[in-house]
């Protein structure tokens, strides 16, 4: 989180080997959450409804799992967790849709906040992470660089497509 960067300034200079106390546990718990959500979707949703999210979770589980097992790239994983701030509004959007509250002020306000946080915490964060990976390619082992590059190559288009769908659904009906 941004607070972590203020409290642990070394993190902004070294996302590979430096991480604040508790950060490793946070990333490990996040892996557990993504695993649980993955299994829940497999058991309770049709594959054609959830394949994109299952794919997303698979990428996150692999990337975060490597960070947790190696005790490296925890700082990079913390940056990636900024993306999840937007998930609050994505989930609230789903709840409002299920409650048939699409034509309410609450839904409209959430749609605006959702798109704003989507740009700030998803698109901008993913762009920053891609840039960081590219700029630090000489300092990252080839296998880790490959996993990170593939992860970013998957996540970025997925998030741009979802942004387009949200924009079309909530603002250009």
From TrEMBL:
Keyword Membrane in annotation: yes
Residues spanning the membrane: 51-68, 74-92, 112-134, 146-167
Domain of life of the native organism: Eukaryota
One cellular component term from this protein's GO annotations in UniProt: plasma membrane
Membrane topology: Multi-pass membrane protein
Domain TLC: 1-173
GO biological process: membrane assembly; phospholipid homeostasis; plasma membrane organization; regulation of membrane lipid distribution
Keyword vocabulary terms for this entry: Membrane, Transmembrane, Transmembrane helix
Alphabetized PROSITE patterns for the sequence: TLC
Pfam families in UniProt: TRAM_LAG1_CLN8 (PF03798)
Subcellular location: Membrane
Protein name: TLCD2 protein
């Amino acid at each position: 989180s941004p607070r972590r960067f203020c409290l642990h300034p070394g993190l902004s200079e070294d996302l590979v080997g430096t991480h604040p106390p508790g950060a490793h546990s946070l990333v490990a718990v996040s892996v557990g959450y993504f695993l649980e959500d993955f299994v829940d979707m497999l058991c309770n949703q049709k594959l054609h409804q959830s394949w994109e999210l299952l794919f997303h979770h698979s990428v996150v589980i692999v990337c975060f799992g490597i960070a947790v097992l190696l005790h490296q790239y925890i700082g990079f994983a913390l940056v990636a967790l900024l993306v999840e701030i937007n998930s609050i509004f994505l989930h609230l959007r789903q709840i409002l849709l299920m409650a048939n509250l699409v034509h309410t002020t609450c839904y409209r306000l959430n749609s605006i906040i959702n798109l704003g946080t989507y740009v700030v915490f998803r698109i901008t964060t993913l762009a920053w992470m891609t840039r960081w990976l590219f700029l630090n390619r000489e300092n990252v082992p080839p296998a880790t660089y490959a996993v990170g590059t593939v992860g970013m190559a998957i996540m970025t288009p997925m998030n741009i497509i979802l942004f387009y769908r949200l924009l079309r659904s909530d603002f250009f009906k």
